Amino acid sequence: MELYNYKIIYSVAIFVTAFFLRLLITNSLKKIQTKFGFQKARILVTNKIITVLIYITVIVVVSFIWGVDEKQLLVYVSSFLTILGIAFFAQWSILSNITAGIILFINYPVKIGDTITILEKDNNITGEIRDIGAFFITLRTPEKELITMPNAVILQKNIKYSPQPES
To answer: Looking at the predicted structure, is the pLDDT value of residue 20 above 90?
Structure first.
């Protein structure tokens, strides 16, 4: 009976630690948003991604505490990493657009409000970035048309951009 008490205590401690870690990261992201002027939507998506990663880690650690077989967990993790690998390298899949969306949110020089030109061979597309979603980026052209493009395409094309003026 004592073994189960220790497992319960360890599990609760891990959940509490994860909760406070998530609060710490959320507060840090708010400070980063204020300091660097990131859009609120970008910070919210980053916060969601980090929260999911924290809780996936908690589930794995708690499953080890409660005696899940390492071989079974290894099969599950390797399957997940295979899917993630496909997402990074597939050109037109939904997973590649989600991955590209994460890259656009976290590490890309443009943000919502900037004007970009997507350089094509025959027809350049110019527009102001209105939204960066999980699958698509939305541009408003000078003619007030809305164009959506898959995130993976944005990462593959040459982009010329004009940052919005600092206010």
So the answer is: yes
Nearest CA among 96, 24, 84, 97 for reference residue 54: 24
Q: Regarding predicted confidence, which is higher, 136 or 39? A: 136
E-strand stretches of the chain: 115-119, 125-132, 136-140, 146-150, 158-162
Label residue 97 exposed, middle or buried (CB < 10 Å: 0-12, 13-18, 19+): buried
Residue 115: HSE in the Cβ half-sphere, 13 Å Cα cutoff: 8
Tokens of 156: 């593959």
Closest CA to 104 of 70, 57, 144, 136: 136
Q: What percent of the chain has pLDDT over 90?
A: 17
pLDDT of residue 17: 94
pTM for this predicted structure? 0.50
- Give the DSSP letter string of 70-89: HHHHHHHHHHHHHHHHHHHH
Name the strands in the sheet holding 115-119, side by side, starting at the edge strand that comes first in the sequence. Answer: 146-150, 136-140, 125-132, 115-119, 158-162
Q: Cα–Cα distance between 130 and 147 in angstroms, integer?
A: 10
Coil, helix or strand at residue 68: coil
Residues 132 and 42: beta-carbon distance below 8 Å: yes
